[in-house]
């Protein structure tokens, strides 16, 4: 489904693998010693900045509801994902949790894996969200989660580096190869990206070249080995001609030092990846989505909710949990603390708070506007983020790069893997 209509409407409305940090977010000074409290749990992933403002927001929530105590669990993504997998399987997940979009399919394919939020609509203000947004959180027509913001892998360009070489901001694949011819003498890559980013990047290229989407409208595999061959061969060419580094050697710090003049990253990660370059005085911008021609920008690119909030179907305190979830999504306190760190909020209420405080600024805001104003973006399907498929893609790329297999044989192998995952 094309989502440009959704973005336009938003613009108009102005296991034990790693230990998670576990702490009470309570501000004990505001709690009366004799007051009976209900304890609920909240979990999320993120960096130090995200942790700090979320804890501060929860303290504000506890001031409003002194009879509720919130225990917080948080970590970086890899630890959070591993721990959450165990918790969902063992039914020990937090009462309120930040979830990834793909988890709806993984843990709630029939809609019963998370709490039905519409049954708590007297507490959770769902009117702040369009039906197009709420649709992302539905499984089997049951509202399992509500999106915080929308997200898309986005092209970021260090304009200062490009200007140093008298090069315009790249719009097409040919522009990148031209930039590589000029930059490589200094060891600079025009573009870069981690494994998932490059997989999605080259999926866009194959869709543009073939005129086919990787999945059909019925979520069946639409690519043949020929489309996967297009992806593999472009990856090899980009490595050989110094357009991108091999994904195994991708280092985020090279964005700080100017070794990478551009990168592919989520809207919600813009400042995590490029904040240091900006603080160093460089001009960084979200560029047009790379395409065969500038008119095709957006074709083959996919958007999804950045993250969602959901509630445990096993919670013993649904009313209190709903109060917290609504606070995180719609309150002025959370909106002003979070700003656009996760992208532009899709809650109309939260967005209005930010607009009134002149907080809709910065790289992530600019990236969100780029996403919302680009025609042709499609809705992300969980298949596109399948870790097994992405690992196989990189392995097949390397087989071709190091002459272990032909591009035809590697494409056939990748196709068979993709087909098995669909089935």
Brief description of this entry?
This protein has helices spanning 4-12, 48-64, 77-90, 103-107, 131-135, 159-164, 173-183, 195-210, 225-240, 254-257, 270-279, 318-330, 332-338, 348-356, 363-373, 387-401, 407-422; strands spanning 21-24, 38-45, 68-75, 96-99, 138-139, 142-143, 145-158, 262-266, 284-286, 302-311, 378-379. It has 423 residues and is an alpha/beta fold. 45% of the residues are buried.
Structure description:
The chain is α/β, with parallel strands linked by helices. The protein contains 17 helices and 11 strands. It has helices spanning 4-12, 48-64, 77-90, 103-107, 131-135, 159-164, 173-183, 195-210, 225-240, 254-257, 270-279, 318-330, 332-338, 348-356, 363-373, 387-401, 407-422; strands spanning 21-24, 38-45, 68-75, 96-99, 138-139, 142-143, 145-158, 262-266, 284-286, 302-311, 378-379. Strands 1, 2, 3, 4, 7, 8, 9, 10 and 11 form a 9-stranded mixed beta sheet that branches. A two-stranded antiparallel sheet has the order 5-6. Helix 1 (4-12) crosses helix 15, helix 2 (48-64) packs antiparallel against helix 13 and helix 13 (332-338) packs across helix 14.
Tell me the overall shape: globular
Biggest sheet architecture:
9 strands, mixed
CATH class of the largest domain: Alpha Beta
> Can you count the helices?
17
Order of helices and strands: HEEHEHEHHEEEHHHHHEHEEHHHHEHH
Distance between the termini: 21 Å
Q: Would you identify the CATH H-level superfamily of the largest domain?
A: Periplasmic binding protein-like II
Proportion of residues in extended strands: 5-15%
Write the CATH architecture name of the largest domain: 3-Layer(aba) Sandwich
- How large is the radius of gyration? 22 Å
Global structural class: alpha/beta
List the uncertain runs.
Answer: 8-23, 26-32
CATH domain fold name of the largest domain: D-Maltodextrin-Binding Protein, domain 2
Q: What percentage of residues falls in helices of 4 or more residues?
A: 40-55%
